[in-house]
Design goal:
Shape: elongated
Mean pLDDT: 96
Low-confidence stretches: none
Radius of gyration: 23 Å
Helix content: 25-40%
Largest sheet: 8 strands, mixed
Strand order of the largest sheet: 7-8-10-9-13-17-14-15
Structural class: alpha/beta
């Protein structure tokens, strides 16, 4: 666990810490070294002559105000790949509010590294960040205390999701995730889990989830996590895609396309992380998170192109592409969740659903698709506030032909290979009743951090969803409401 305290002067900082500050900071000592470092227009970094600190890094003021491109976090990232001290002092007296959230989450997220999975043999002793001194002005103290508490809880939820997603898929099976959900929720009295096994999935009519998972030796699971922060009130629902490994099924992916497919369960992992954050913050709200878990494998019972499967809301879907399995498990889970809570306040699903959204939006923005304008606006604002942004893509009846089937109610992919991301969302919208505000988040670009040719789980969009939840609760509690 990384500890944190607020300080008002460098005299309260831990000795031998790594000091990080903007070049314009008035808190810095007036020494020849600092004067020389201030004079540069780029990153100034030294490990020599900087006592009582072990390292000093001064960064241009523009980075501390850039809420659009993650430039400050991207500059900090290589510094923490091999930290020189377990303590850091970061000056936030001159920082944009959104950048502050990004930086705090980044620092708290240092509590998880791939080495923690204990799959790599190493004799080296790596320095790990264990304490953060946040240097601020006295008038910032009260606000920062609340911000730090929230961002620590968000980071803890992100870490839980990241650890789960980073585990290799031969261990991280649907059953393993169900067990981990139970274990992680157990410390919180407001959280409880229920799990549907493969027989119950069939009995409850989840034919789409069954179709995807029946080809694997590791059977599918549906996990529902209930958070009761208050005894009554509207339930907010979240549904996550949890494909623990995606071969593409009989529509087999190329080898290179399968390399990161253990991360095709990031949506489900992030829903779990979101519920853990809500519980840690003791938010006064009721939430249900649904994890649709399956392995899309090749086997004697694997679904075949042209098969027709029945969803739990009665609709039939022609499976014309077995590599479009994520929307199948999501569709069933969305319908199941809406049946459990037909008066849900809203329902949001999140999934590493399409590579097409990366072609459209890149790796920094999650795709947002909804027909509810209020929900679209609220998620967009929350994204801007949290620094975990979304971008809206069209979703209306012009996409109808993309899901038409001659043999079933719907087909799972458009035969013309056009508007893949929006077409997937159009399919999904059939499974949430129009009385429930619904939004789909395609996180194929944002669910991973990509650096130095490697990919690791990012924990996004947990910051977005927590901010949206906090905003929504604030609206409920406002006098005008």
């Amino acid at each position: 666990m990384i500890t944190c305290q607020l300080i008002h002067s460098l005299s309260g900082a831990h000795p031998d810490a790594h000091l990080i500050a903007p070049t314009t900071s008035p808190q810095l000592p007036d020494t020849a070294l600092i004067q020389e470092m201030r004079a540069t227009d780029t990153v100034a970094d030294t490990r020599f002559g900087c006592a009582p600190f072990k390292r000093i890094t001064l960064l241009p003021s523009a980075l501390w105000q850039d809420s659009l491109t993650d430039s400050l976090v991207n500059t900090l990232r290589p510094l923490f790949a091999t930290p020189v001290s377990s303590h850091v002092v970061i000056d936030v007296s001159e920082i944009h509010p959104t950048v502050l959230l990004q930086v705090l989450r980044f620092l708290f997220n240092q509590a998880h590294r791939l080495d923690d999975l204990q799959l790599k043999t190493t004799d080296s002793v790596t320095v790990r960040l264990s304490h953060i001194d946040v240097l601020c002005l006295p008038e910032q103290q009260e606000t920062l205390e609340g911000v730090i508490r929230q961002q620590r809880a968000i980071a803890n939820g992100m870490i839980a999701a990241r650890r789960l997603a980073d585990i290799p898929s031969d261990r991280c099976t649907p059953q393993f995730i169900a067990e981990q959900a139970h274990a992680l929720c157990a410390p919180f009295s407001a959280l409880r889990c229920e799990v549907l096994n493969e027989q119950q999935i069939v009995e409850q009519g989840l034919g789409l989830l069954h179709a995807v998972g029946k080809g694997a030796t590791c059977p599918p699971r549906l996990v529902a996590i209930h958070y009761d922060g208050v005894p009554e009130g509207p339930v907010r629902c979240y549904v996550g895609k949890g494909i623990t490994f995606d071969t593409g099924g009989l529509w087999l992916k190329e080898g290179a396309g399968m390399y990161t497919m253990k991360y095709d369960m990031c949506g489900a992992a992030n829903v779990l992380g979101l519920l853990l954050t809500a519980a840690e913050l003791a938010l006064p709200v009721r939430i249900m998170g649904v994890l649709a878990l399956a392995e899309n494998a090749i086997g004697p019972n694997a679904m075949q192109p042209g098969n027709v499967a029945h969803a739990c809301n009665g609709l039939t879907v022609e499976i014309n592409n077995t590599d479009a399995e994520g929307r199948l498990v999501l569709a069933d889970a969305i319908a199941w969740a809406s049946q459990r809570h037909p008066q849900a306040h809203y329902l949001i699903d999140l999934a590493t659903l399409t590579g097409a959204v990366v072609k459209a939006l890149g790796y920094e923005l999650s795709g947002l698709m909804t027909q509810d304008n209020a929900l679209r606006a609220a998620l967009t604002v929350a994204g801007e506030q949290s620094g975990d942004e979304v971008w809206s893509l069209p979703l209306d009846a012009r996409l109808k032909k993309q899901t038409e089937s001659a043999i079933a109610d719907l087909c799972n992919t458009p035969t013309n290979n056009a508007a893949i991301s929006a077409s997937a969302a159009w399919l999904l919208h059939h499974f949430c009743p129009p009385t429930i505000p619904w939004a789909h988040l395609d996180i194929s670009g944002t669910a991973l951090w990509r650096e130095a040719g490697r990919s690791v789980a990012s924990g996004r969009p947990i910051p977005l969803l927590v901010q949206h939840l906090l905003n929504d609760l604030a609206v409920e509690e406002s006098p005008a409401k």
